[in-house]
Design a protein that fits this description.
The chain is elongated, with a radius of gyration of 24 Å. The longest helix is centred in the middle third of the chain and has 26 residues. The chain folds into three domains: about 190 residues, TIM Barrel; about 80 residues, no CATH class; about 120 residues, no CATH class. With about 400 residues, it is of the alpha/beta class. Helices cover about 55% and strands about 15% of the residues. Pfam families: HDOD. It comes from Eiseniibacteriota bacterium. InterPro entries: dGMP_Pdiesterase_EAL/HD-GYP, EAL_sf, HDOD, RNase_Y/CdgJ. This is HDOD domain-containing protein.
Length: about 400
């Protein structure tokens, strides 16, 4: 069964140029119809905002032909999720809380080299921020965040360095006049308007569809036919795909006549990114996020063990078995009922339900290792002639792999 439609929200605050024309929009996350930020883990908020921008409302719906200013956390930067956005109409706004370590600086260089513009939010001079300042085109200055004398010194120094300035938190006519006279190019604040609320009704596809989509794109070769079949069966997924196609870095302006055409236009890499984004969030909807990490860890671990146990030809089956080992928890059904609509092979199905060989014993090791049931682990290692240290490395790799993909 599909879940009931839910109302989702976003906000956009216009950014004006010197002629008071709208030059862009800062896109803001909203958890409810209350038009204000209500807190939360910044990484989660950033990921949800990106998901709603690309898959929910669609970027073009939110910004039209203007520029999107996207708030970026450390996670969005280093995991490269900005690649989902079109460089020509995106400014990546680095939050003031980001620590400019080597990984962040490297990500910002890649971002700039790819054609994106970088803005620093609520900037104040510090030695630590120098590397990011050198990579930024825009600097946002909080007009109310520091004494006027200090702000004037900052403005002069930034202009001398060639940076373009945006005055934020402009709330009065006098502040706007002062910012104009100080050479600011862009302006943002309640003097112009408050963030505009956007809302829509969203329908999440069946979690089983998400599981099958993940499997279709995580194999060595992409199963394009299966992806097409799954997307065509669900109007919500079809709409999300088309929104993504027109929002992604390779935004497509021509008419799209079929789901297959949309997938072919995106290409393998973007399909994998789209599925990972939509499926991970779909699986986690209403569920503890850790459950998704567990599913992906088991899948990757089982896939690694296939080669170690002499079952290379069954690696895809083992990945699928690991992924579906939490299908009961994700779908709120008994495991047998959760597996019923998937059309699984008898071997995968029996491995999951009763631990039948040849896949079942490997899956048993996966679950025992996760639980720390070392007596069972020892027995499994002996039966399958596996080296404990090699299996431990495979598990560590699986955990890192899963956590990276479970972070939207």
């Amino acid at each position: 069964m599909h879940t009931q439609p839910v109302e989702v929200f976003a906000a956009r605050q216009p950014i004006f140029d010197r002629q008071r024309r709208v030059a862009g929009y800062e896109l803001l996350y909203r958890a409810s119809e209350r038009n204000r930020y209500e807190g939360g883990d910044p990484e989660v908020v950033s990921a949800l905002s990106l998901e709603r921008t690309l898959l929910g409302f669609g970027l073009r719906t939110l910004i039209g032909d203007r520029v999107a200013w996207i708030n970026a956390t450390r996670g969005l930067l280093v995991r490269g999720h900005w690649e989902l956005l079109p460089p020509g109409s995106t400014v990546i706004e680095l939050l003031e809380t980001i620590e400019p370590d080597a990984e962040v600086i490297a990500a910002c260089r890649r971002l700039r080299d790819a054609g994106y513009r970088i803005a620093l939010d609520d900037y104040r001079h510090s030695d630590a921020m120098r590397p990011l300042l050198e990579l930024a085109e825009w600097v946002k200055v909080d007009f109310r965040g520091q004494p006027r004398v200090e702000r004037h010194i900052l403005e002069r120094d930034l202009r001398r360095r060639g940076h373009r300035l945006l005055a934020e938190k402009i709330e009065t006519h006098e502040e706007h006049v002062e910012a104009m006279e100080s050479g600011y190019e862009l302006f943002q604040g309640f003097f112009f308007c408050r963030p505009e609320m956007m809302r829509m009704r969203d329908v999440a596809p069946n979690r089983i569809v998400f599981l099958r989509l993940l499997r279709a794109v995580n194999g060595t070769s992409l199963d394009l036919g299966l992806v097409e079949e799954l997307v065509q069966q669900d109007v919500s997924l079809s709409m999300k795909l088309l929104r993504f196609l027109h929002s992604a870095a390779n935004a497509w302006a021509a008419e799209v006549t079929s789901i297959r055409q949309a997938l072919l236009i995106l290409g393998e890499r973007q399909i994998r990114r789209w599925v990972s984004l939509v499926a991970v969030f779909g699986l986690a909807r209403g569920k503890p996020g850790e459950l998704v990490v567990v599913a992906l860890t088991r899948a990757r671990f089982a896939e690694h063990l296939a080669a170690l146990a002499g079952l290379e030809a069954r690696s895809d089956d083992l990945f699928l078995a690991g992924l579906l080992s939490v299908a009961d928890a994700l779908t709120d059904q008994p495991l047998e009922a959760a597996l019923e609509p998937l059309g699984l092979s008898a071997e995968v199905r029996e491995a999951l339900l009763v631990g039948a060989p040849p896949i079942g014993p490997v899956l048993r090791l996966v679950l025992a290792w996760e639980l720390g049931a070392w007596d069972v682990v020892e027995k499994c290692l002996h039966e399958q002639a596996l080296d404990e240290s090699t299996v431990a490395r495979a598990y560590a790799d699986a955990v890192l792999w899963a956590e990276d993909r479970a972070q939207p």
